[in-house]
Amino acid sequence: MTPLVLVHGFGTSRHIWRRVLEAVEALAVDLPGFGDAADQGRAGQTVEDMAQALADMLREVGEGPYRVAAHSMGGKVVLLLAARHPELVSELFLIAPSPPTPEPMEPEGRSKLRAAHGDRDALNAQHHDITRQPIPEQDFVQLVEDGLRASRDAWIAWPDVGSREDISGELDSLRLPITVLFSEDDPAISPDTIRSEVLARFPQATAVPIRGSGHLVPLEKPEAVLPLLQVKEERP
């Protein structure tokens, strides 16, 4: 069975996959600057930096190629991973992914995102703003704690550097299966952005739009994510 890897998004950690991991066997990882890898974050951290760190982790595990599911920022990271290290990735599942092009974000939004680092009240407000479904209390507490312990350098680098990068020129050679799950009600990365900047660039991709979830789909609607991962695992 092809192993499955789960990659988190901005400001969170591998814990965002807790509800998914109750039903599937997978390796959930922390990107540099976040979760247990908080001390690996650095100023000016790029998408390439994160993709290379992820490639190094997967090579160390040594069980690839991998099916890779990634949320938000992680989606941009794993697209570059697949382009730069095709031998490591057999299939991608992008969940509410950041686009490979510069993410549309107003200056006020970028400023607000920067300021949330290390601020418990701001982190609480941020997660309330980007969700549409209640999140179990233990998971909401974990989200805030992940935001508090994240590397400040890595945190600032995403709105200032990573989210502004354009990696689309490196992705033309991607031919592997790609599934894109997104919410029509996502207040953080709009469905219009997903359609114009993700799906339009990958005509082979399978689009899975849902409703009723905000941005944190793995915690808000794990039941929408699980069938994508489980069906593949059940193939003989």
Task: Provide a concise account of the structure shown.
With 236 residues, the protein is α/β, with parallel strands linked by helices. 41% of the residues lie in helices and 13% in strands. A 6-stranded parallel beta sheet has the order 2-1-3-4-5-6, with helices on both faces.
3D architecture notes:
The protein has 236 residues and is an alpha/beta fold. Helices cover 41% and strands 13% of the residues. It has one domain (4-233): Rossmann fold (3-Layer(aba) Sandwich). The protein has helices at residues 18-21, 47-61, 73-84, 107-115, 120-130, 137-149, 152-160, 191-197, 217-220, 222-233, and strands at residues 4-7, 27-29, 66-71, 89-95, 178-183, 206-210. Strands 2-1-3-4-5-6 form a six-stranded parallel sheet, sandwiched between helices. Helix 2 (47-61) crosses helix 3. It is globular, with a radius of gyration of 16 Å. The N and C termini lie close together (9 Å). The relative contact order is 0.19. The model is unreliable at 231-236 (pLDDT under 50).
